[in-house]
Write a structure and sequence with these properties.
Blueprint (H helix, E strand, L loop, with lengths): L1 H16 L9 H15 L3 H21 L2 E5 L5 E11 L3 E3 L5 E3 L2 H6 L5 E12 L4 E13 L8 H4 L4 H6 L11 E3 L2 E3 L4 E4 L5 E4 L7 E10 L6 E9 L4 E4 L9 E2 H7 L5 H8 L7 H14 L6 H9 L13 H15 L8 H19 L14 E4 L1 H29 L5
C-alpha cells in the first residue's frame, strides 16, 4: 500500500514539473475541466445520489426515531406497537389476470402508469404480559421510484444492453426523474435558511412585536422534523420566547422558561446568559431585570411547567386542565420539541437559550451586527432526498396517529388487534 502511494506521489510530482507556471490559464483550459466534470458525473448524479440516500438511510432513520406507538387499554394496561426494518420492492404491475411482473420506465410512460415501489415494514406488537407477535413485511404504502436509482429495475438488471433494448429503454437516458401516471416529473431543489444556527434580526413584524429577536430552526438529524424557537425583547422592554406548540399570542416570559428548564434562582439565570467578567455586564443586567421580575409568580419548576403547559395548543380551548397532565405535557415539549438538536437533556438547552439571549442583546447594544437573511453563508439547498424525507416523516406520523386511533377503538370493543 505504501509503495503504491509513493509511486502515485512521484507521478503527481512529475506532472507538476512539466507545468509552466509562467503560462497563463485561458478560457479554453477552464472549459476542458468543466467538460471533463460533466463527462464524469453528468447532470443528474446529485439527484440520484440524494434519492439513494433517502431510500437507503433516511427512511430507516425516521422509522427508528419514531418506532414506538403506545396503545391504552380500558383496564389501564398498555400495548406497544413497534416498527422495525424497512424493505422495498422493485417496481411491479399486477395485470387483470392477477399476474404480477416487473415494469420498466418506458412501459410506465406508454400505459399511463406510475413507476412506484411498495414499502414494507416489520411490526412487533407486545403487551404487559410479555406476549409478543411479530409481523414480517407489513405493507405500509408506496413511494415513487427515481429512474436509474438503487431500486429501479434498470439498475437491478445491471444496465444490461439486451434487457434495455428488449424493454425499449433508451441506453443514453441518465435518469433522475419520476414517472407519475405516465408523466415524467422532476423534483426541483429548494433554497432555505440553514438549520441549527442562531440568527438575530431587527423589528419582528409578527406577534409579539419584537424590537430585536434571535431565531433558530432546529433539526435533530437529517430528514427529521424541524421546530422553530424565537427569543426577543418586546417594545415594553420585557423578553419573551416563542417555543414549539405554544402560539405567539401566548409567548412565554424568559424567567418562566428558564425556571421550567430547571434554573430557579435569578442569579443563576443571569450566569447562563452572561459572565460577571464581561465588559457590558451592567448594561445586560439593566435590560434583564424587568424580565426576571415579570416571572415572579412562578417560583418553582412545576409552577413554570404548569404555566407553559396550560398555554399549549392542547389546552387553549379548555377552561380547566389537570395539573399533573399539563406539567407532563410541558415537560415533553421542552425535552423533545424545544431545540431538538441539543438532545433531550435540559441542561444543554438552558445554556443554548442563554446564548440566544446574549446574542440578540449584543445586537441591541450595538456590540455586534444583525444577520443578513440573503447572505449565501446562511443558505442551504434541500434536494430531492431531503424534501421527500420531510414528506415521508409527515406521512409516517399520520399513519401512526391513525393506527393508534383505530387500534384503541378495536381494543375497547374487545376485538383482536
Amino acid at each position: 500500500m505504501q509503495k503504491a502511494v509513493k509511486k502515485a506521489m512521484e507521478l503527481v510530482t512529475q506532472e507538476f514539473e512539466n507545468i509552466n507556471i509562467d503560462e497563463s490559464i485561458t478560457n479554453e483550459d477552464v472549459w476542458k475541466f468543466i467538460d471533463t466534470y460533466f463527462e464524469e458525473y453528468g447532470l443528474v448524479r446529485h439527484q440520484i445520489e440524494s434519492y439513494n440516500n433517502f431510500v437507503c438511510e433516511l427512511i430507516q432513520n425516521i422509522v427508528n426515531e419514531n418506532s414506538t406507538v403506545k396503545l391504552k387499554c380500558p383496564d389501564g394496561s398498555e400495548k406497544t406497537v413497534e416498527f422495525g426494518e424497512i424493505s422495498f420492492s422493485y417496481p411491479t404491475y399486477t395485470e387483470m389476470n392477477g399476474l404480477q411482473r416487473a415494469i420498466y420506465p418506458k412501459e410506465a410512460c406508454d400505459r399511463d402508469m406510475s413507476y412506484v415501489s411498495q414499502l414494507f415494514c416489520d411490526v412487533i406488537i407486545s403487551d404487559t404480559t410479555d406476549v409478543v407477535r411479530a409481523h414480517k413485511k407489513v405493507y405500509i404504502g408506496s413511494i415513487p421510484v427515481m429512474v436509474k436509482s438503487e431500486i429501479c429495475n434498470i439498475v437491478r438488471d445491471g444496465d444490461d444492453p439486451d434487457i434495455i433494448y428488449e424493454n425499449k429503454e433508451c441506453p443514453y437516458d441518465n435518469g433522475g426523474y419520476f414517472i407519475i401516471n405516465g408523466s415524467k416529473k422532476v423534483v426541483v431543489s429548494q433554497e432555505r435558511m440553514s438549520y441549527n444556527r442562531i440568527y438575530v434580526f431587527n423589528s419582528g413584524k409578527n406577534k409579539p412585536s419584537y424590537s430585536h429577536y434571535a431565531e433558530v430552526r432546529s433539526s435533530a438529524s437529517e430528514g427529521s422534523h424541524t421546530t422553530t424557537t424565537q427569543v426577543g425583547i418586546s417594545k415594553d422592554g420585557k423578553i419573551y420566547a416563542i417555543i414549539p406548540y405554544i402560539s405567539a399570542d401566548n409567548a412565554i416570559p424568559l424567567g418562566v422558561l428558564f425556571r421550567a428548564l430547571g434554573v430557579i434562582n435569578e442569579e443563576d439565570i443571569i450566569k447562563h446568559i452572561i459572565s460577571d467578567k464581561e465588559k457590558h455586564y451592567d448594561e445586560f443586567i439593566s435590560i434583564l431585570l424587568p424580565s426576571l421580575e415579570h416571572a415572579f409568580s412562578c417560583r418553582t419548576q412545576d409552577d413554570a411547567l404548569f404555566y407553559i403547559g396550560k398555554r399549549g395548543k392542547k389546552y387553549t380551548n379548555e377552561n380547566e386542565c389537570d395539573r399533573e397532565k399539563t406539567i407532563s405535557n410541558a415537560m415533553h415539549i421542552l425535552s423533545v420539541d424545544l431545540l431538538p438538536h441539543m438532545g433531550n437533556e435540559l441542561i444543554g438547552k438552558r445554556y443554548y437559550l442563554g446564548y440566544m439571549v446574549n446574542k440578540f442583546l449584543s445586537v441591541k447594544l450595538k456590540i455586534r451586527d444583525s444577520e443578513d437573511r440573503d447572505h449565501y453563508a446562511n443558505k442551504r439547498v434541500d434536494d430531492v432526498g431531503t424534501l421527500m424525507s420531510n414528506i415521508f416523516y409527515a406521512s409516517f406520523k399520520r399513519l401512526q396517529s391513525d393506527l393508534k386511533i383505530t387500534c384503541e377503538k378495536m381494543i375497547s370493543k374487545k376485538q383482536p388487534v
